[in-house]
Amino acid sequence: MHRPIKGYKDEDQLCASNVADLKELFKKYPNLSYVLAGHQHMYFNPQGPDEFGPPPERTDPGKHPNYLVSGGAGAPLKKKGFYHYLIFTVDGNKVSVQLIRAAEKDESN
């Protein structure tokens, strides 16, 4: 998705009616593990105690998907943003995600 369901800043996420509609739709798919969005040009994990830490592992079917913002390209990063990528591993009904922080670019050259 482009705009997140749960974003770091409320003004950058979907409006309440769109969020409600999507959450209702997602209930039909209990094996939907993660919903990823960009738009905020940062990594954000609203599920965890550390909003900038790795996403939680899950076992499906679950009650609802985990929401992540992974928008580290295309524009300058947000203040707390960092370049990164995610690696998803599926093992039967377990899904885990590794958060890989990219090496910082050397701007001195």
Explain this structure.
The structure is a single chain. This protein is mainly β and 109 residues long. The chain has one domain. It has one helix and six strands; from the N terminus they run αββββββ. The strands form two sheets. It has a three-stranded mixed β-sheet with strand order 1-4-2, with no helix packed on it. Strands 3-6-5 form a three-stranded antiparallel β-sheet, with no helix packed on it. A hairpin with a 2-residue loop joins β5 and β6. The longest helix is centred in the N-terminal third of the chain and has 11 residues. The mean pLDDT is 88.
Overall geometry comes to globular
Structural class label: mainly beta
Q: Rg to the nearest angstrom?
A: 15 Å
Q: What is the ordering of alpha helices and beta strands?
A: HEEEEEE
Oligomeric composition of the shown chains:
single chain
Unreliable residue runs: none
Q: Could you give the order of strands across the largest sheet?
A: 1-4-2
The number of domains is 1
Which strand-content bin applies to the residues? 25-35%
Instruction: Assign a percent range to the helix content.
Output: 10-25%
Number of H- or I-type helical stretches: 1
